[in-house]
Amino acid sequence: MSTDLTRQSPPTPWSFARRNSMAFPSKLRDAIPAVHDGRILELDSINAHASNTPFFGPLVELKLIVKETGKLTDSFVVVMRLQPDAARKLSATLTELAEKAEEQNGQ
Q1: Residue 97 has what pLDDT?
Q2: pTM of this prediction?
Q3: Extended beta strands in 68-107, E state
């Protein structure tokens, strides 16, 4: 399932501040050994807040706390910043997929 989440209007002088983005800590990059394609982390918690400032405009920010599994105990904060329309689309997509997953479970 794919949904276009990027703004189609021309960029503004502060367009980077108003993009939908995800930020990964460098410590997370360093935690992935070179011999592996990636690392599976467990989603531990989600914190969120909404804001509307002159520089950034309306914004929804999610902080996903992910942690190591097994012997390692590190945790990492992955930040997702979304424009309100993208946050609504993400919410609708997740709700739709959750309903489909529950329906499939009953079949």
Answers
A1: 96
A2: 0.71
A3: 75-82
Over residues 12-54, the pLDDT tens digits come to 555 555 688 988 888 877 777 777 677 788 999 999 999 998 8
Say which amino acid occupies 50.
Answer: A
Q: Is residue 52 in a domain?
A: yes
Q: Which domain holds residue 47?
A: 20-105
8 Å CB contact between 18 and 83: yes
- What are the angstrom distances between the C-alpha of 50 and each of 9, 98, 105? 23, 24, 34
Domain count, the chain: 1
Q: Is residue 41 included in any domain, yes or no?
A: yes
In a domain, 4, yes or no: no
